[in-house]
């Protein structure tokens, strides 16, 4: 079984690879299909946008990640990608509302976000039990031994594969209709991630707080409703 230090080093390695992959992926997509769109967006959002986005993602990641662990009886500091997405989205929408900015501004982050999730979740998988992202025990042939000789659902791997499929679809849309991607891409990405994450959470041993739902599932439902509403609004902007 991995020690906490080993798990931390493994996760940090994958986090660094994920960050580099996100930057590389974002730059390639920008040069490939989004170069003419980004200057227009930058003029609309101002520099405060990035401050609000960063603040929201950091606070959301640690707040909801730690809250979920606390409610599950695990006294540790946690981080959560769904919490980061929720926090960043909330803060950006508040900023845009105050500034009067209309339309989607998150499309430039879609590919980097997907890459971060795909690679970052592999870090969760290989970090073992110490990462606290393992699934419940299973008798399936593909069950994963996280170090305690118990086969569990490799939920992080499920999520990584799911987002890889979404990445392929996103690149296909970018190739065919860049206008659809810039208008709806971010909202569809958020909705897709929230839906698949909602179902994977049923395979994790986290504490329920509302019926059968845990903290992350409640956040997922909020993000699904957000994406549906914003897709509807984007049709008329």
From TrEMBL:
InterPro entries: Lgt. GO terms for molecular function: phosphatidylglycerol-prolipoprotein diacylglyceryl transferase activity. Signal peptide: none annotated. The chain crosses the membrane at residues 12-30, 50-71, 77-95, 107-130, 155-174, 181-200, 212-232. Keywords: Cell membrane, Membrane, Transferase, Transmembrane, Transmembrane helix. GO terms for biological process: lipoprotein biosynthetic process. GO terms for cellular component: plasma membrane. The keyword GTP-binding does not apply. PANTHER family: PHOSPHATIDYLGLYCEROL--PROLIPOPROTEIN DIACYLGLYCERYL TRANSFERASE (PTHR30589:SF0), PROLIPOPROTEIN DIACYLGLYCERYL TRANSFERASE (PTHR30589). Belongs to the Lgt family. This is Diacylglyceryl transferase.
């Amino acid at each position: 079984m991995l020690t906490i230090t080993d798990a931390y080093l493994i996760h940090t390695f994958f986090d660094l690879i994920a960050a580099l992959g996100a930057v590389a992926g974002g730059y390639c997509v920008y040069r490939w299909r989004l170069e003419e769109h980004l200057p227009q967006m930058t003029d609309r959002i101002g520099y405060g946008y990035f401050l609000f986005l960063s603040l929201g993602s950091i606070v959301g990641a640690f707040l909801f990640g730690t809250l979920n662990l606390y409610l599950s009886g695990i006294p540790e500091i946690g981080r959560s990608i769904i919490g980061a997405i929720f926090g960043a989205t909330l803060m950006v929408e508040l900023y845009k509302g105050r500034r009067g900015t209309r339309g989607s501004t998150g499309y430039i982050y879609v590919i980097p976000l997907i890459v971060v999730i795909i690679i970052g979740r592999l870090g969760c998988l290989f970090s073992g039990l110490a990462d606290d992202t393992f699934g419940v025990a299973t008798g399936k042939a593909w069950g994963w031994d996280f170090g305690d000789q118990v086969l569990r659902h490799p939920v992080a791997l499920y999520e990584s594969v799911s987002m890889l499929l979404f990445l392929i679809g996103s690149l296909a849309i970018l190739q065919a209709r860049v206008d659809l991607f810039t208008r709806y891409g971010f909202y569809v990405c958020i909705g897709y991630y929230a839906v698949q994450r909602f179902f994977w959470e049923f395979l994790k041993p986290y504490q329920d707080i509302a019926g059968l739902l845990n903290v992350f599932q409640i956040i997922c439902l909020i993000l699904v409703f957000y994406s549906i509403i914003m897709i509807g609004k984007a049709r008329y902007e």
